[in-house]
Amino acid sequence: MKAINLILCGLILSLLTAFAQEKNPGQPLPKWEGLASTPQMGWNSWNKFATNISEELIKATADKMVELGLVDAGYVYLNLDDGWHGERDAQGFIHEDLKKFPSGIKALADYMHERGLKLGIYSDAGTNTCACYAGSLGHEYQDAYTYAMWGIDYLKYDWCFTHNINPKGAYATMRNALRWAGRPILFSMCEWGSNKPWEWAADVGHSWRTTGDIGVCFLPLPQKYDEQGNPVWKNSSVLEIIDLNEPLRKYAGPDHWNDPDMLEVGNGMTVSEDRAHFTMWCMMAAPLILGNDLTNMTDETLAIITNHDVIAIDQDPLGIQGLRLKKEGDLQYWFKPLADGAWAFCLLNGGEQPQTVTLDWSKLDFTDDLSGLSPSFGSVTYTVKDLWNASVKPFKTTKPVTVTVAPHDVITYRLSR
Ligand code: GLA
After folding, report:
1. Which of 44, 47, 82, 259 to mutate to test the pocket of ligand 1 (most atoms within 8 A of CB)?
2. CATH number for the domain whose boundaries are 30-314
3. Which residues of 323-347 are buried (b: 16+ CB within 10 A; e: fewer)?
4. Is 379 helix (H, G, I), strand (E, B) or coil?
5. Could you report the per-residue pLDDT of 146-201, keeping only the tens digit for each?
6. What is the pTM of this model?
7. Which of 24, 131, 336, 373 is the residue whose CA sits 20 to 30 A from 308?
8. How far, in Å, from the CA of 309 to the mean position of ligand 1?
9. What are the domain boundaries of the chain?
10. What is the CATH number of domain 323-416?
11. From ligand 1's centre to the CA of 123, what distance in Å?
């Protein structure tokens, strides 16, 4: 009897402690785990629409996501970026801009949930967002509470107007607040890699930006300088971002991904560039957040963003970011270990000329330092499937194969045992 009483007391005590920890604002609390066991997929309003967002646009986008099979392909988050905000009230609670969202954000979240989608929102760790709306500094718990009450599922948290606050503290505060608010909300950190979040944020966010903002450009934009000779801020190109993100692969994994920024597919690059951009984000196990106008896109764009085989590389359950084996001039050789002993292989041509190479698999063998895995081409024969060109019949790795990679394009294979 005594033993049972003791066990009961212990149980009640641990329940009370757990309850107290969940309910005390300011306590360090764990992030919501398991929300991004593979990189998150969805759509975000910023790249195409900036702050020109509205209930009409967001609902039309949601409808398209369902109609075009994007939700079935895995794109489940529909994320509002900067500019949804109205004012804070006298108690400090944030409200939506009712001119842009007349039915309110709560009704919008309901609209998403009824259609199998999830709603994301955006805020900033500083006094203001990058587009100068109200930031969350000093209002973290209130904001997390409001988002939870609205039924929000995802928060992108930016880093403008942060006035030298401590980045670890600022992001941990919002993580705690989200946990305290009681609704599982994926936490997407967006401080552009300025404070090396990959070194300290695995237990804070589900992903962290590793670079500045992407532009609609495959090649680097020219650097401009101000009158004092200081470099002027510019968008990063696809090739620059790949170079910055690649060395960080050891920090990424399930529930804590490197985020090389949202996709620009369908926003003005060529079809080859879009294909290469999309494939490389998949090779790097990046969050796949579409950024184009889904209500008005070409068949080529739709075919790129719904290529199930390429998406499967990104979403592979091993969750290992791919590696660049070597670079020969403009040609980059990439591998990504996949579940079931398979590999993804990608040849990226960053140059202006077509590149013809012979792939002698036995000469491409290596061991990945991070995973300890090796394709072992000497002893294992793989069946190779071309993921962008269905007219190429599957072939084996026993013989060398000669291929030509178009300019600013990729050849992408899945090598299965
Ligand atoms: C920053 C972010 C962008 C976008 C804008 C919004 O620049 O990096 O992704 O959210 O702010 O103002």
Report:
1. 82
2. 3.20.20.70
3. bbeeeeebbbbbbbbbeeebbbbbb
4. coil
5. 999 999 999 999 999 999 999 999 999 999 999 999 999 999 999 999 999 999 99
6. 0.94
7. 373
8. 30
9. 30-314, 323-416
10. 2.60.40.1180
11. 10
